[in-house]
Amino acid sequence: xxxxxxxxxxxxxxHYPHVLAAAQVFLDNGIAVKSPPMSWITNPGREFVxxxxxxxxSSDHAIQAGTLEKIFASDFVYVVNPGGYIGRTTxxxxxxxxxxxxxxxxxxxxxxxxxxxxxxxxxSALDLAIAIGRGTGVRPRPIRRPRVxxxxxxxxxxxxxxxxxxxxxxxxxxxxxxxGKLALPGGFVRPGESLEDTAMRELKEETGLDSSGIRxxxxxTYSHPQRDPRGRIVTTAFLAIAPxxxxxxxxxxxxxxxxxxxxxxxxxxxxxxxFDHGVILQEGLERARQLLEHTTVGLxxxxxxxxxxxxxxxxxAVWGVKVNPQNFQRKVRNTTGFxxxxxxxxxxxxxxxxxxxxRGTAHILYPPMMRPGQQQRTRRENQPTNMV
Amino acid sequence: xxxxxxxxxxxxxxHYPHVLAAAQVFLDNGIAVKSPPMSWITNPGREFVxxxxxxxxSSDHAIQAGTLEKIFASDFVYVVNPGGYIGRTTxxxxxxxxxxxxxxxxxxxxxxxxxxxxxxxxxSALDLAIAIGRGTGVRPRPIRRPRVxxxxxxxxxxxxxxxxxxxxxxxxxxxxxxxGKLALPGGFVRPGESLEDTAMRELKEETGLDSSGIRxxxxxTYSHPQRDPRGRIVTTAFLAIAPxxxxxxxxxxxxxxxxxxxxxxxxxxxxxxxFDHGVILQEGLERARQLLEHTTVGLxxxxxxxxxxxxxxxxxAVWGVKVNPQNFQRKVRNTTGFxxxxxxxxxxxxxxxxxxxxRGTAHILYPPMMRPGQQQRTRRENQPTNMV
DNA sequence: GGAATAGTGTCTATTAGACACTATTGT
DNA sequence: ACAATAGTGTCTAATAGACACTATTCC
Lengths: 388, 388
Known about the structure:
The structure is a homodimer.
Chain A: E1 5-10, H1 12-28, E2 32-35, H2 60-72, E3 76-80, H3 88-100, E4 103-106, H4 125-132, E5 151-162, E6 165-172, E7 182-183, E8 186-188, H5 195-207, E9 216-222, E10 233-241, E11 257-261, H6 262-267, H7 277-294, H8 308-319, H9 325-334, E12 339-346, E13 354-359
Parallel strand pairs in A: 1-2, 1-3, 3-4, 5-10
Antiparallel strand pairs in A: 5-6, 5-8, 6-7, 6-11, 9-10, 12-13
Helix pairs in contact in A: 1-4
Chain A binds a DNA duplex through helix 9.
C-alpha cells in the first residue's frame, strides 16, 4: 500500500493561500501532494503563475506540461475554487484530467462551467483527507469513495526458437520513459477494445505478419501504483508462441523490434528491461515451461510438419535442460492425440531419415510430460518426519 | 474511405458568425460538420449558448455532454478563436479532446493558455479543408493515439467447505445495476492500492474477520468493453481459500454476504450471477481444482490440525468425485513435506482414532495428485493413429 | 454384535529412466 | 570408415489403482 497522492488545481494567481491551506490539510493527514510545489510565486499578478522551483528559462507550456505530468501521477485531483471560480487554465486541466478518468473533487460547486459534478464530489479538504486516510474515521458528509482510473495496457511475451535457443521479441523504446531501453511489445487499450483485442492488434503491428494462427494466453496483471512513472498504468501480460519466423520488422512504429535470446535479455547486457518487464518476462518464461508440461503448446513452436527431434529440441530450449531422446520419442508417440504420423520423411542431417508428424487433436497432456530436475519425489518408506 | 468529419469549438457566444463561416467552408469542401448544429442561438448573450436544436428542458451539462459526444465522433477539431481568445468552456473541451488524442487545429495562435501548439496546426479553415480534401497536404494526424481509461476493480472468488460441500462467498447487491442479484465480493481500486491490496481490503471488509492468513492468487482479468453497464470497468479476479468459517457478516457495506453452495449458485436458482460473475466463478472453480492437483492448497481448507480423512473430503468436495481412501492415505503420507504427523489423535466418528496432522513445508506437489476421471492416457501399443 | 472408519499389506498394470542395439544417413 | 541420428527393445524402480485385512470406535 503506497501513500495516496493528490494534485491541487485552481487559480493559483488568485487563490494561492487557499491552495496552500488545503495542501497542508492533506499533508497533515498522510496524503502526498504532487502539485503544486510547496514553493513561492515569482511573478505575482501575471496570468500564468511561475514558482521559484520552476526552471526559469523554460516556456509556459513546458512548465504546464510538467504540471500535467505530476497531476496524472497522482491518485485524485482537488479543485480549489473559492466562490466556484474556475479559470481557463484550470478548465483545460480539468478537461485533461476528466478525460483521463482521474477522480476529481471540488472545494465548492463550480460556477459557469457546464460540467457534470457528481453527488458527493463537493467536499472540504479535511473531510476528503479523512475519508481517504486509512483510519475509519467518521465521514461527516456523504462523499463518493475515491476510485482510481487507470490506463489499461497489454504487453506480450512472445517466444520463438532460433538456432535451438529460446528467443523473445523485444522492442527498443523510442520515447521516454526508458528511451533506448528494451521492452516487451505492447500498447494501450483503444476505444472498443478488450485487452485481448489490444494484444492481438499490437502483435500484428509489431511482428508485421499475419498472426491469425497465433494464440494468446493471459498471464498476469501488474498493477503496482508506481510501476510506470507516467502514472497509473495497469498492464496485463499475454503469452504467445510463434514458429521460427525468418525476420521481423516493426511495421507501424518508429522503434525496432527484434528477437533477443532469453537468457541474454534476462541476465546479461547489464541492460535491464524497461519498467517491470524483466519480472514479466521471467514469469512468462516459467508459465511457458509449465505449459509445455501439461499441454501440447510445444507444437506451436514447430511448423506444420516436424520431426520428433525438432519437438524435443523445443522442449530442451524452453526447459533449458537436455531430454533423453529415446524416452521422449516413446512418450510422444504413445500419447494419444499428441502427434500424427504423416507418410513423408525428412533427411537433413546425418542419421536415419526421420518421420514427419503433424499435430494431433489433443490439447491437454494427462499425465503430463515430466520435466527433469523437479523431483521432490515421494518417500520410499514411511519414515517419521519431523519438519517444522 | 468515409467522408471526414470536423467539430468546431470556440466561443459561440462571441464568435458564432465566424464559426458559421468556417463550417460553411468545410461543408463546401466535402467535409462533414458534426458540431455545432447548423442552427440558431436561442439565448443570445448568455454565458452558455443554447441552440434551437437543443432539447429545451435539459440541463447545461447534459447539452455539453452531447456536444462532447459529437466532438469525439469527429476526425479532427477546429478551434475558432478570433484574436486568439479561448474561453473557459472551450478550454475544458480542448483538454478533453487533447487527452483523447484527437487532432486539433487553430484559426489563430491561442493566447494566454499555456498549451503546446505544434508546427502547422494554426491554419485557416480553407487551407485545412483543401489540404484534407486533396489528401496531399497536412493530414490530420492524432497527436496521440486514443487511449481508454478504465476503472480497475478486484473481485474475489473465495471458497470454503461446509458440511462436506464446496461453498463460495456471494453478496447480494444493494444498488443498481443488478440490484438484488448475487455477485462476487469485490470493489474498486483506491488511491495508492495495487489490485492485490484492493482484493485483500475487500476480503477483510466482506468476511469481517482477520484474513491475514488467507492467501490470494490472481486468476484472470476480464476486460470486455461492455461487461459492465456503468462503463469501462476492468476486473481482475482473485482466488482465496478459507477454512470453515462459522459465520460471516458483511461488516461495512449495507448488503449481506453469505456462503452459497457452488453447484447451486452455478446451475440452480435460475438466478444468474450479476455481470459476468458466473463465468468468473466457473473459471475460478476450475483453477482451484487444478491447484489441488499440483499444490498443497487443499490444506488451506483445513484447520491447524486435521486428519487425512478430512483432507480427503476436501479433495472430494472440490473435485466433485470420490477418492479411494486407502490410496489417498498412502499418497499423502508418502509425499515429503505435505503433512507432518502430530502426537494427538482424534476420535469423533465410528472407527479407529485418526491421527492428527499439521501442514508440512512443501507447497508444490511433484508428481501431482492425480485427479480421477481425467484419463486421456497414453496408448498401450503404438497403433497407427489417424486422427484428423 | 454390526457398521463404519483408520491404517497397513500386497498384487498388478503402467510408466519413467537408463541403456543396448540396429538401421540409415552425411562427410 | 566414421560419427551422428532415428527408432525399437528391454530391464529396473517407482507408482496408481484395486483389494484384502486388522484394529478401533460408535450405536
